[in-house]
Amino acid sequence: MTNTESMYQEKMQEIQKQLNSMRQTINNNSKVVAFMNSPVGQYLNEHPCVALTILVFFAMSAIPVGLFLLLIIGTAVTACVGVIIMEGIVISVGGVALLCVLCGLAALSIAISGVLCVCYMALSSLINYWHDWTSFPGKKQEYSENYSQPVIDSSVSDPAMNRSEEE
User: Fold this and answer.
1) What are phi and psi of 47, to 5 degrees?
2) What's phi and psi for 94, nearest 5 deg?
3) C-alpha–C-alpha distance, residues 118 and 116, integer Å
4) Which of 11, 44, 105, 117 is deepest in the core (most CB within 10 A)?
């Protein structure tokens, strides 16, 4: 047993040396020295039970605070992804609606331009005909001769009229 006890004792001394060197490294850190010189650091140095209570509280609250922060980050990521998905859906629906409106406008513009082309051609033909008719006086006379009202011969046209004239 002395052999195992001496072995445990050597290991404990080695662990104690490592802990002392770690403690000295922490105590020599400039931020720790500044904290220990502050009023809060001096109070905690004078009241080790309060320091231990605060240390245990922070150690025990690390897991719930970490889980809460993970929940917040997860919710934020989910909200961003949801917003991106909603934005994509809204843009897609808006794009389809815009496409439908533009197709309707294209069909309407084709119809309107067709009507305007027909009106232009008809009006152009009428203006050309009117110009030809008014620019040559001989044609105007020919037109009036060809398209004048026929003279109705009373003897041929209506026998009832002829009877009234005879009486």
Assistant:
1) -125, 85
2) -65, -40
3) 5
4) 44
Whole-prediction pTM value?
0.42
> What's the Cα-to-Cα distance from 165 to each of 76, 96, 152, 153, 158, rounded to whole Å?
109, 81, 15, 13, 11
Determine the Cα–Cα distance for residues 122 and 116; give it in Å rounded to an integer: 10
Compute the chain's Rg from CA coordinates.
55
One-letter amino acid for residue 59 of the chain? A
Per-residue pLDDT of the chain (167 residues; tens, 9 = 90+): 578 888 888 899 999 999 999 999 988 899 989 988 999 999 988 998 998 999 899 999 999 999 999 999 999 999 999 989 999 999 999 999 999 999 999 999 999 999 999 999 999 999 888 877 777 665 555 555 665 555 555 555 555 555 554 44
